[in-house]
Write a structure and sequence with these properties.
The complex is a heterodimer of chains A (290) and B (739). Chain A is of the alpha+beta class. Chain A has helices at 3-14, 16-19, 43-52, 59-63, 139-143, 188-200, 213-217, 242-249; strands at residues 29-34, 72-76, 96-100, 119-121, 127-129, 149-151, 181-183, 223-227, 268-269, 281-284, 286-288. Helices cover 21% and strands 14% of the residues of chain A. Chain B has 739 residues and is an alpha/beta fold. The chains are: A alpha+beta (290), B alpha/beta (739). The interface between A and B is large, with 81 and 95 residues.
Chain lengths: 290, 739
């Protein structure tokens, strides 16, 4: 394999969405998270534990960074954009909260490094993890710039769900065992259920029909979830979903390393966009009266 | 049934519909419900109904019981198990949303350490018993008891559970109902009652353009947090409201403020009066509606005086006043840290005075109406009841006491001596799910069915202008055959007391079913009885409306102690969080592992200190400090950040459960309530939670480390959370309501 081949392959892969050839996408699930509305309450994270059979690892393992929170709410005290917090005596604009789940990158850095293709891109635009194919090399986790992959260093099924807690486990998805990497799936089991229902009813999936657990529970409605390819609604004739509307409004486009916004002040941005991984999660700037 | 012996009016009373007067004309005894229907049972999903398809989840409506807010929920049931809870979109309280406590309700239900059998005390230990033994013992002990010797302590209660509970108290002839909640709005309610003529006014965050909150953590623990979170989203949509939070240590609401102001606990009232002074003297607002004494009090809080009393910068005080005036209508709230003083009432009253001066009454503070059926109306708990109960127990006034939905041995400061005084009560019955501190001291333990196993009706204490009764229905068969629903237990107890009116009801379900048959016809919309019941269950709630009321501003005189806020002693802030709440959720592993919103600590207690204070004491993050009050001491690890007043050490509630309280809470952290001084607000008798002086010293480090989520407290220059000024937001998105 020559270097130029490698670069060509990567380049073709990277542009797979725009130029075709790698995937014919059925859907492209994406999000918009409004940090003006997010209050950092953590409801999304616990909803994720409940929906996705996430293991509770306990204090000692949590200390070692082995917590399995697919969706974590990060909290920062500084505000680099406002630039005054460093010197003030108090935390006068509150905190900066950031709900982080797998960004479902379209040019995911985790995917090409998997030696067994356990992580791959689905026709739904999802960054999937095939648990029974995973051999636990952890290359993907090492390569994720967001650190949003979680490794089962242990078997948690006895400690995390002593009877009868195991009765709560969601039968729609598995409980992962030792040696397997796992991550946010955008609640793929919910997507699957809705797609199956739509197929049985011989229709297309409607906008808002799939709700991820985090988006559904969010007390302020900060998390929007939907299909980035749009969904044609025969009744209204509109092909825009709520989430595409948000992306268009805030002038963020998929497939771009640097956004060329007509109104640069519109709030949309993607975390680490410059790394060229093309995340499907857009954040909207936090707002503060200063 | 023995209804023929009961007068109609009495019957309506036992069903909870009493007290509506004229609307009941023409309402007759039920004719559509047969005895057979009254015996209806909930069928296990292990024997699928025709409409149950294996592998497909079905959603049933119910009501969350994790805090007193009464959010509507939907439970996903598959193959007879409840798997996931979501908010019920039909509920006006939470509009389809759910908080982390609500999500974790499932872990209370499926908890491995739930009490599965009744227990009776034999000597020093509680041993398993049968329900007949337990009921027999209770019947024996209450047989000839005089009303004054009996008491029942509960948490906030409403709906038909409240009706039955009152009926039981009446059957004994006792009026001793103590309703206790550590996290409450009791002082706010009293001030609203006195100054507005309505203890529970509606707060219009959606209409407000600015908000000044004195420690009211409305996104976390104040009022109805989920409801206010949904309203907050509207508040922050263009035109975007400005939030100013004044409090001793940062709450979840404070973390979302545009301006967060640290206050020394107790100085909130002075600050409010200082702002009032600025509004009148500099912003041209009138205070003519206020009593003369309050007007002169406001005049006395000149800028200099306020700066001296509060330590807040003069510019900042003037700025806050100007912002409130400019961004009208505004709303001013007061919560736990403002009310937790010996002059707590005055602090809250001063905040309410701002609402009067700013003209917010009628604009952003409206009447909420009154729930029509008094006996089902929510009874909200307070800490005054805890203090008076402790006193009564110390005075040996009670022979038999029931406890349900409360854990006073944990929530009562040691200085109240409650734990010791309980020895004076010869017979204590605790309705309980877990072996908590109060349960450990019981003579009889009655194991309760979980929220997901029980029937009930609930009336949310804060509803936005509607009168919804929210239904709680079992989402699955009980996990243990030996637990009983609260309503079932009280109904049995009533029958054991030979209360003939209740003999016709086989169980609490039959009682509730009957109650909904006898509901005044106007609520049925012409539906048949069976259809009506099915509809109510499917919707999870029914709106029975409210009696319209209006606010009447009344002049209330109050003073403000001058010397407060000047002392140099450290003050302990036992701040509450949306998570462990008052400690009742420390047994839920999801919440133990969910990082605290502010400090990001997991599985532990911590003390929050300002960097300057930490430096003075000579501690850094993770070091141990000893916090000593006149009433006791605790050792706890510190977390240091700039969201706390330098005179304050904050130890959030939740951990430190002596009795174990499940494997998850056992031997974990400290209970900051335990070392509080027994001070109370002089006007309301509420515990003054934010007024205990403490001495903080460095203590020896232990092997036990403080575990926190996240490696970095700052973004290290990366664009993770990008922030823009509000004026930019208004320029680009102002008036734009897309999304």
């Amino acid at each position: 394999m020559s270097l130029s081949n490698l670069i060509d392959d990567w380049s073709r892969y990277r542009k797979g969405r725009e130029e075709g050839g790698f995937h014919d996408y059925e859907h492209m699930w994406g999000m918009s998270i409004d940090l003006n509305k997010c209050i950092g309450c953590n409801a999304c994270s616990v909803a994720c534990y409940a929906e996705n059979n996430l293991a509770v690892v306990g204090k000692e393992k949590f200390e070692k960074g082995q917590g399995m929170h697919w969706l974590r709410v990060e909290r920062y005290w500084d505000e680099p954009d406002l630039g005054e917090e460093r010197t003030s005596e108090f935390q006068q604009h509150g905190a900066s909260f950031l709900p982080m789940m797998c960004q479902q990158c379209n040019a995911a850095t985790c995917e090409p490094v998997c030696p067994v293709a356990a992580t791959y891109h689905t026709p739904d635009g999802l960054n999937a993890q095939v648990y029974n194919r995973c051999i636990g090399s952890r290359y993907c986790s090492n390569n994720c710039p967001f650190r949003l992959r979680y490794f089962n260093f242990w078997s948690y099924y006895e400690d995390s769900w002593p009877a009868p807690l195991q009765m709560q486990l969601n039968p729609d998805i598995s409980v992962r065992d030792m040696g397997v990497m796992e991550k946010c799936t955008f609640c793929v089991q919910r997507i699957r259920t809705v797609k199956d229902t739509a197929r049985m009813e011989d229709r297309k999936v409607r906008d808002g029909e799939v709700q991820t657990a985090c988006s559904q529970t969010c007390p302020t409605g900060a998390i929007e979830f939907g299909d980035m390819l749009g969904m044609y609604d025969p009744e209204t004739g509109v092909a825009e979903t709520r989430v595409t509307k948000m992306w268009r409004k805030h002038q963020v486009e998929l497939g771009k390393t640097k956004q060329n916004k007509q109104t640069p002040e519109m709030r949309g941005y993607r975390v680490f966009e410059f790394l060229n991984t093309d995340p499907c999660v857009m954040y909207l700037d936090r707002v503060r009266e200063v | 049934m023995s209804f023929s012996k009961i007068k109609r009016r009495d019957f309506l009373k036992i069903m909870g519909w009493g007290g509506v007067g004229a609307t009941l004309v023409g309402c007759d005894l039920p004719t559509t419900v047969t005895l057979e229907e009254g015996k209806e049972k909930v069928v296990s999903y292990l024997m699928p109904e025709e409409y149950v398809i294996p592998g497909v989840g079905v959603w049933y409506a119910s009501t969350c019981q994790q805090c007193p807010s009464g959010c509507g929920i939907h439970g996903r049931v598959r193959e007879g198990r409840v798997l996931k809870l979501e908010g019920n979109p039909a509920s006006s309280v939470n509009k389809g949303r759910l908080c982390q406590m609500g999500q974790a309700s499932l872990q209370a239900h499926y908890n491995p350490d739930r009490i599965a059998k009744p227990k009776i005390r034999r000597g020093s230990s509680l041993v398993d018993a049968t329900w007949e033994e337990a009921y027999g013992l209770i019947a024996e002990k209450t047989a000839n008891i005089s009303g004054s010797k009996f008491a029942w302590m509960t948490g906030s209660v409403s709906g038909h559970q409240s009706v039955l509970l009152q009926a039981y108290l009446e059957s004994i002839g006792s009026g001793n109902h103590f309703v206790h909640e550590t996290i409450n709005n009791a002082v706010w309610a009293k001030v609203c009652q006195d100054m507005l003529g309505d203890s529970n006014p509606r707060i219009r965050l959606d209409k407000a353009q600015s908000m000044l909150s004195f420690g009211a953590d409305f996104l976390g623990t104040w009022g109805s947090p989920l409801h206010f979170s949904t309203e907050y989203a509207k508040f922050r949509t263009s035109p975007r409201g400005t939030l100013i939070q004044v409090e001793p240590n940062m709450t979840l609401t404070g973390a979302n403020a545009d301006l967060w102001v640290a206050s020394r606990p107790g100085s909130e009232g002075a600050l409010a009066l200082g702002i009032a002074n600025q509004l009148v003297s500099k912003q041209g607002l009138s205070m003519s509606g206020l009593p003369n004494s309050v007007q002169s009090l406001i005049r006395s809080y000149t800028l200099d005086e306020t700066v001296t009393a509060t330590g807040v910068d003069a510019d900042r005080i003037a700025d806050i006043a100007a912002t409130l005036k400019r961004r009208s209508p505004s709303v001013v709230l007061a919560g736990a840290s403002a009310q937790g003083h010996e002059h707590g009432y005055q602090c809250v009253a001063a905040a309410m005075v701002l609402n009067v001066i700013l003209g917010n009454i009628g604009k952003t503070i409206e009447s909420n109406g009154e729930f029509a059926y008094a006996s089902m109306a929510p009874v909200s708990g307070n800490t005054h009841s805890l203090v008076s109960f402790s006193q009564a127990a110390a005075d040996k006034r009670f022979d038999v006491v029931f406890f349900s939905g409360v854990n006073p041995v944990y929530t009562a400061p040691k200085s109240l001596g409650l734990k010791e005084s309980l020895a004076n009560i010869p017979f204590k019955v605790v309705f309980s799910h877990f072996n908590d501190e109060t349960t450990a001291m019981a003579d009889v333990v009655l194991p309760l069915a979980s929220t997901e196993e029980d029937w009930g009706t609930h009336v949310a204490p804060y509803q936005a202008g509607v009168g919804e009764i929210s239904i709680q229905q079992p989402l699955m068969e009980p996990l243990s055959t030996e637990t009983r629903g609260f309503g079932d237990i009280v109904l049995t107890l009533l029958k054991k007391r030979k209360e003939t009116a209740y003999e016709g009801f086989a169980d609490y379900y039959a009682y509730l079913r009957n109650a909904f048959s006898t509901i005044p016809a106007e609520h049925k919309n012409g539906a048949s009885d069976e259809q009506f019941w099915t509809d109510v269950l499917a919707a999870g709630l029914i709106d029975v409306g409210v009696k319209k009321t209006s606010l009447k501003v009344k002049g209330v005189e109050f003073d403000m102690p001058k010397e407060m806020g000047n002392s140099s002693a450290m003050i302990l802030a036992p701040s509450a969080r949306l998570g462990f709440w008052d400690g009742r959720h420390a047994n839920l592993p999801w919440l133990q592992e969910a990082p605290d919103q502010i400090s990001k600590v997991v599985w532990d207690s911590w003390a929050e200190l300002h960097p300057s204070t930490a430096k003075k004491i000579g501690v850094k993050e993770g070091d141990m400090v000893k916090i000593a009050s006149a009433s006791g001491e605790i050792n706890v690890k510190v977390y240091i950040y700039k969201g706390v007043h330098p005179d304050v050490i904050a130890v959030p509630l939740g951990q430190g459960h002596d009795a174990g309280f499940s494997r998850y809470a056992k031997d974990r952290g400290v209970n900051s309530l335990s070392i509080l001084d027994p001070k109370v607000d002089k006007m309301t008798g509420e515990l003054a939670l934010y007024s205990t002086n403490v001495k903080v010293t460095k203590a020896a480090k232990t092997d036990d480390v403080l575990v926190r989520f996240g490696g970095s407290e700052t973004q290290v220059g990366r664009k993770l959370v990008s922030t823009i000024p509000a004026d930019v937001y208004e320029r680009t998105e102002g008036g734009d309501h897309v999304a």
